[in-house]
Each structure stands twice: as C-alpha cells, then as structure tokens.
Amino acid sequence: MSLFTDFDIDPRLIKALADHSITTPTLVQESSIPCFLKGDNFISLASTGSGKTIAFLAPLIHKILQVQKKTRLAKALILVPTRELGMQAFKNFKLLAAHTDLTSALVIGGDGFIEQSRVLRRGADVIIATPGRFLDMWDQGRLLLSHIRYLVLDEADRMTDMGFYPDLRRIVSLLQMPLHYSLFSATMPEPVTELINSFVYKPTIFKINNPKQSADTIKQFLAKVDIPKPILRKNPNYEGFVKRELLRYLLRQENPESAIIFCNRKRDISTLYNSFIRHNFSCIALHGDMSQSERFKSLEAFTAGKNKILIASDVAARGLDIPNVSHVFNFDVPLSTDDYIHRIGRTGRAGKSGRAFTLTLCEDEYNKLSNSVKKSIEPANLDTFIVPDPKNINSSRGPKNNRSKYNEKRDNTQNLPKNNHNKAQDTKQIQEPKKIPATSFLKEKNIQLDEPSVQGFGENIPAFLLPELIKK
To answer: From the centroid of its chain, how far is CA 6?
Structure first.
C-alpha cells in the first residue's frame, strides 16, 4: 500500500492528512492501520520516529466516526508515559480530527486539575492521559469509563521503566469488556511482555524493524579519545574537561542546525550548560528537576530556533516530538542499548537524515552497547583534535570577558589579598572599634578606674569608650 487513500478510512481523515502534506504511510502505519480497522488486538514494535502516533490515531478516529450513537462519554483511552508525549498525541489528534466534530481531553500531570476536570465534564470522545493523573481523576469520581472500547498504550516500555506497571494493571481492570487493545513501543522488555500476556490473548505482533537497531536515516559516529587511566584517576575532573573540549570541537566541525546533547547526570547538564554559555554557544537546559513551566520554556525556545542546542537528560529521549533535530550528541555513553536507541531517535525522524555522535574516553563504557548497535557506528574523524593538557584544566571555564557578572566578581575577589577579599569585609574592618591595652594606658595616664567600669572588656577597652569611663 503506497498512499493513505488506499486505506478504507473516512475521507475527512484523508483531507486532514493532505492539509499537512502527509500522503504516504510509513511502514508502521502500513501494517498497523489495517489491523486496527479489522478490530484485531496487536503489538507494533518500531523504532522511535517511525510514525506510531498517526498509526493508532488515524484508525481510532475512523472507528469513532462510524459510531452512529452520539454520546458525551469517552470511547477511547490513550495512555502515555510522559506529559510531553501526551501533548504530542493531543496535538496530532487535533490535526487529524480537524474536519470532524470529535474532541479529546488531555489528562496529564503538571497542568491544572480543575481545568482538566471541567473539560471532562463537558465531554470528550478520546481521553489522552498519563497513568498517575488518570487514576487521580478516577479516585475523585471525575471519570466515566462505561463507553470506552479502545485502549492504546503508547511507549509501553517507557511506562514499565517508570514504574507504571501496577497502575496499568489497575486501569485495565476498571475498563469494561469487550475491549480493543493496541500497543506501540520501540522495544519489548520482559515487563511489557508480562503486561500484555495478562490481559491480551494471542495478539498479532508486528516487528517493523529490529527494535534493538536504530533507524536507517541516522548516521552514527563514535568520538573516542584514549586517555591513560592513571591520568584520569589522578585528576577526576580531567575526564569532563576533555569531553567538553571534544564536544565543542565536534560542534564547530558539524555546525548543526539544531542539536540535542544528552547527559546521564543532572549535575553534568549544569556544568556543561555553564561552560557552553561562557564559550558563546546558544544553548538551553532540560531535565526532570525543572518545574513544568521551566521545561515548557526550554522546549519552546529550542523548537522555535531561539537556541540551537538543547542539553538534556533522558527526559527528552522519549515522548518528545521535536522537529528538524539535525544532530544528537551523547556526552555520556547511555546506560543501556534501549536508551541509546531512544536518544539518537530524536534525529532522523519522518524520513529526514540525522547524525549522532557518542563521546567516550573509556572502552568499558562503550562495550555496554549491544553488538548489533555497534555495527552501525563508525569512528568519527578527530584528526585535528588536540587533547588538552591537564595543566590547562581551568581554561575550560571559558574566556573571562564572556563570563557572567557573578563569575567576574568571584574571580576578582580571588585575586585580592586574603584580608581584603570583598567590600563587606573591608567595611567591617573600618567600622571595627579601635581597642587599646587597658592596663598600660591607665598606668601611663595615671588614671584609676573602678573594677566594675572595665569589667566585661577584658584586657582591651574600645578607645571611644574611655572618655565616658574617665568622666565617671
């Protein structure tokens, strides 16, 4: 099948797709849509960026449009692991349902609970939800599930990774039978298999490609620098210093239109972000500890092209549909092959080409990736890269004139004499009352004071108090 018009789906869907120049189905859409239309339960395994969202939304909307009896109650539930993926599905639903009167409700964490409840009361044909917020709504009596006949699990592997397995089991138990199931995922770990076997009998399984391999549209490179382990052990900060220099080298060589840099640890995101700002790179950060408003702000700035580089944790590896990402850089080797596939899957999407680089100074880290993945990775050209001297480690902070005012102030204070390192201390020294030895002064002036007058000052008396004490 070569065109969406070849599917037996509602013409309004075809028109909505054509409005956005979507005419040819991807492999996952070509296999999943007919199965969904027939009413079969199925599992679709396909790499990230293969078009899974349209693969379940198009036939789902078609099915709902065929129902003659109209009701304000939801007919379908789409469960997603993250709020970002929920927003992506919500956006695509509006795109496909543009020429219909169908509506959807987005039930995700981080958004207003009251507003989401209000949307549910008005009624929606499809509920798109994260498991946690969905159960919160159910426990407060804000959901009616009696008319739901379709359940879609998107990024099922991610949901089990995030600990949603018990929530998924509970949600399935709340839904009435018969129920049509469809599951979409990039990988099929054991928890997902257990979950499916618990409520689906002999589903059809589509393996669009090897789930342990990346998309063919992504060119992959390994940027490996050999640093003797004794040097790394002697100076723990040297590894990060070399990798930052190497990353800046690659960015200058590649000059990406837009790039995502992945780090394993949040503290590395902060360090890398500050270093890049000092070296005049246009970048922004994204990680799980940021508030929802901060995450939105970062994503909007990146997708709008205000910042060319997004430095992120694995929160951006799944569930984010960011268009036109030309490059992905793994500052750290991912902890697993699945994480690697999802990370580099942010580029090379929708048939476009992409480039992915993985940085490492340690062969042991690289060996964590499966052999099937490593076969697709070729060495990066580092002929002109000069390994920095450990003695120059402080230079990675960047040119002084590009640092923030806070850092300039901090640097200036470090060059001052020890007792004059800031204005506050200088002021304190000026205001500190001058003290003189009490015993020698009084003996020299032949002044006698009662013991109670000097009690509490010890051996030294503040000079400005002496006149008052002498008067007494």
So the answer is: 38
Considering the domain architecture, whether residues 197 and 273 belong to the same structural domain is answered as no
In a domain, 120, yes or no: yes
Last residue of a domain, one of 163, 184, 207: 207
CATH number at residue 10: 3.40.50.300
Query: Residue 416 falls within a domain, yes or no?
Result: no
80 contacts 89 by C-beta, under 8 angstroms: yes
Note down the domain range covering 441: 435-471
Tens digits of residue pLDDT in 257-305? 999 999 988 888 989 999 999 999 989 998 877 777 787 788 888 888 8
- Say if residue 168 is in the same domain as residue 196: yes
- Determine which of 108-122, 329-343, 450-464 has the lowest per-residue pLDDT on average: 450-464
* Residues forming beta bridges with residue 79, ordered by sequence position: 129, 153
Question: Helix (H, G, I), strand (E, B), or coil: what is residue 332?
Answer: coil
Q: Judge if pTM exceeds 0.85.
A: no
Here the tokens at position 130 are 């994260």
Sheet holding 104-107, edge to edge: 104-107, 126-129, 76-79, 150-154, 180-185, 42-45, 204-207
Q: Are residues 104 and 232 in the same domain?
A: no
Residues 246 and 319 in one domain: yes
With residue 206 as reference, give the H or E element that holds it.
strand 204-207
Range with the poorest average pLDDT among 59-68, 135-144, 336-345: 336-345
Alpha carbon separation from 38 to 34, 180, 446 (Å, rounded): 6, 10, 114
CA 395 vs CA 126, 239, 306, 409: distances in Å:
55, 14, 27, 18
Q: What is the CA radius of gyration of the chain?
A: 32
CA–CA separation, 323 and 329 (whole Å): 16
**What is the rounded CA–CA span in Å between residue 344 and residue 332?**
13
**What are the φ/ψ torsions at residue 125 (nearest 5 degrees)?**
-75, -30
Residue 403 lies inside a defined structural domain of this protein: no
**Cα–Cα distance measured from residue 131 to residue 168, given in angstroms and rounded to the nearest whole number:** 7
Q: For residues 30 and 123, what is the distance between their CA atoms, to the nearest angstrom? A: 32
Query: Among residues 177, 207, 237, which one ends one of the domains?
Result: 207
Whether the bond into 178 is cis, omega within 30 of 0: yes
